[in-house]
Amino acid sequence: MQNGTVQNQSCSPMGEHYELQATLGGRIQRAVVTEVAASLRALEIDGVALLQDYPAESGPPSCAGWVLVPWPNRVAGGKWTYDGASQQLEITEPANGNALHGLLSGASYTVANRTSDSITLAADVKAEPGYPFELATAVRYRLMEDGLLVNHSLTNTGSRDAPVALGAHPFLRLGAVPTEDLTLVINADTHIEVDDRLNPSGVTTDVRGTRHDFRTGQRVGAVALDDAWGNVRREPDGSSLHYLKAPDGSQVQLFMDASFGYIQAFTTHVFPSEGGLVTAVAVEPMTAPADAFNSGEGLRWLAPGETWHLTWGIRYQLP
Fold first, then answer.
1. Is the confidence at residue 272, as pLDDT, over 90?
2. Can the peptide bond before residue 70 be classed as cis, meaning omega within 30 degrees of 0?
3. What's the whole-number mean pLDDT along residues 100-119?
4. What phi and psi, each to the nearest 5 degrees, are found at residue 117?
5. CA pair distance 243, 217, nearest whole angstrom
6. Is residue 9 predicted with pLDDT exceeding 60?
7. Residues 6+ apart with CB under 8 A from 197
8. If we measure between CA atoms, which residue out of 54, 20, 257 comes closest to residue 143?
9. Contacts of 99 (CB under 8 A, 6+ apart)
């Protein structure tokens, strides 16, 4: 370690790697965050890995760990309309012809603040074709006794109202338990139907009695997912909780505050790890579903000078 950078990651296309360490409540915590995309790459509690990592020399497979801003998921065809004028975003998902996961996936973030157990990374969104707005963004990762707390802030630094949404793309795991043997629980009552380009069709269905009902859990190895849910089941404070559960009852939990009304799950059986290809599952908090720039669903408009603060995190729960 030198200047907070993990030196053996220096060849990574994700730039500098920042390691956080702490011992809290008698438990040992460790996380790794990258310069590019401010991505969350590793999280461990007492040596139990809670995120699926990938080879050091590789780019992040399937957007692993990215911060997704100013929109998560897709904008259909990269097209939308602002103030009567047609907007065209760069097509970054050629297979489906969509604009995918925002504008900062390739951005190098700067370190705004750092301690041994936390780091704040910042990056600006500049006006460009398809998104004529300016934002200052920051994300703070802080270790907790049972996991990691993630705080985001988005500030409109431009002169007109700006549309914003946010998401993240962590691939969760539970130590040495094969991911296909974990049970996925999504506490949400409706499923967002999509077309053959994975954009919302305009139909939202009640999950009751369907294969999309994950409220009591389904085994990861038995499903193939690239799906989103709405109407998340909220706690009294507006937050919601979703998790993976191991056969012994232990859990890795994704919690998100009231700003997040949607959640996406994505499975793959060809995620590259240091030991070869493995099954992996992303459980993704989202403030808006796909194509929110067109539907307006979940989209937030920030006034000039306005800042939006929002929080999610990951917890490890023993049986």
1. yes
2. yes
3. 96
4. -115, 10
5. 9
6. no
7. 74, 76, 96, 97, 98
8. 20
9. 74, 75, 77, 78, 89, 90, 91, 92, 93, 130
What average pLDDT does the segment 131-151 reach? 98
| Three-class HEC string of the chain | CECCECHHHCCCCCCCEEEEEEEECCEEEEEEEECECCCEEEEEECCEECECCCCCCCCCHHHCCCEEECCCCEEHHHEEEECCEEEECCCCECCCCEEECECCCCCECEEEEEECCEEEEEEEECCECCECCCEEEEEEEEEECCEEEEEEEEEECCCCCEEECCEECCEECECCECHHHCEEECCEEEEEEECCCCCEEEEEEECCCCCCCCCCCEEHHHCCCEEEEEEECCCCCCCEEEEEECCCCCEEEEEECCCCCEEEEEEEEEEEECCEEEEEEEEEEECCCCCHHHHCCCCEEECCCCEEEEEEEEEEECC
Radius of gyration of the chain (CA): 19
* pLDDT one-digit tens code per residue, 282-294: 999 999 999 999 9
Give residue-wise pLDDT tens across range 255-265.
Answer: 999 999 999 99
- Residues 113-123 as b/e (b if ≥16 CB within 10 A, e otherwise) read eeeebbbbbbb
